[in-house]
Amino acid sequence: MDEQTIAAAARHILAERTAGARLAPFAPGTGPIDEPAGYAVQRAVHRLGDEPLAGYKIGCTTPVMQRFLGIDAPAAGGMVERGRLASACTLHHRDFRRVGFEGEIAVTLGADLAAGPFDRTRVADAVGSCHVAIEVVDDRYTDFAAVGVPTLIADDFFHAGFVLGPAVADWRSLDLAAAEGAMRIDGEVIERGRGEAVMGHPLAALAWLADLLVAQSRPLRAGATVLLGSLVTTRWLTGEHEVAFAVEGLGAVSLHLRD
């Protein structure tokens, strides 16, 4: 894609977000056709949106999510600071097209990840803290399968916000791969998942993202927060509910969903 087409695609995505419309597949020649083009449009979306990034989310890092979305590889999206939510916050359906929730392990970096290649041991040295998190996602597409992965990437891969739990600085005392997470809806556990489902170890997902962003000349910097992938299947909800997610050793976060 040339720069003019990239910019036009980014403006279209931002306009659809602002209008609260559902994003349809791009006409031939006007949208990204592969993942590198999707990330190029994503970068343009971030530039044109002119909002500070809090960090990144990684989607499809677990078999359960890959089966659910029919996508067999990870994909990353940006998270803006405006999407950072406090635990026990209240969200309303009117602010979303089709709202969903995922339960995650997250990290906040204490140092840059500027020169790869990375593995989970190398990225561990840069992790300042770990957190439990809920990612808020929005199915803002006419049909996400028809829209396709490159456009999903360009549109930050469903991301709509995140609830981050307290920082756990002594996370090295935990076995993140063995840690179990539990999603509760209205107080009832509806699904559990373990950290090892995320690419064998949650920090393997961080290494994947660090390599991706170095290749794109936008390395992860200290202070960035990264959601490493959902341990449970996305829960698309209607009506009013209480949503909570807890991970052993990392605590719990919650939110209220209202009409």
What does the model show?
The protein has 259 residues and is α+β, with helices and mostly antiparallel strands. The chain has a single domain, classed as Alpha-Beta Complex (Fumarylacetoacetate hydrolase, domain 2). The chain has helices at residues 3-19, 35-49, 63-69, 120-124, 144-147, 149-154, 202-215; strands at 53-59, 75-80, 84-85, 89-92, 99-109, 127-138, 159-164, 180-185, 188-194, 225-230, 235-236, 241-247, 251-258. Helix 1 (3-19) packs across helix 2.
Give a short synopsis of this structure.
With 259 residues, the chain is α+β, with helices and mostly antiparallel strands.
Lay out the secondary structure:
Layout: H1 3-19, H2 35-49, E1 53-59, H3 63-69, E2 75-80, E3 84-85, E4 89-92, E5 99-109, H4 120-124, E6 127-138, H5 144-147, H6 149-154, E7 159-164, E8 180-185, E9 188-194, H7 202-215, E10 225-230, E11 235-236, E12 241-247, E13 251-258
Parallel strand pairs: 1-10, 3-7, 4-13
Antiparallel strand pairs: 1-2, 5-6, 5-10, 5-11, 6-7, 8-9, 8-12, 12-13
Helix pairs in contact: 1-2
Structural class: alpha+beta
C-alpha-based Rg, rounded: 17 Å
- Please bin the fraction of helical residues: 25-40%
How confident overall, as mean pLDDT?
96
State the CATH class.
Alpha Beta
- How many helices? 7
Can you name the CATH architecture?
Alpha-Beta Complex
Strand content: 25-35%
- Secondary-structure element string: HHEHEEEEHEHHEEEHEEEE
Give the CATH superfamily. Fumarylacetoacetase-like, C-terminal domain
What's the CATH topology name? Fumarylacetoacetate hydrolase, domain 2
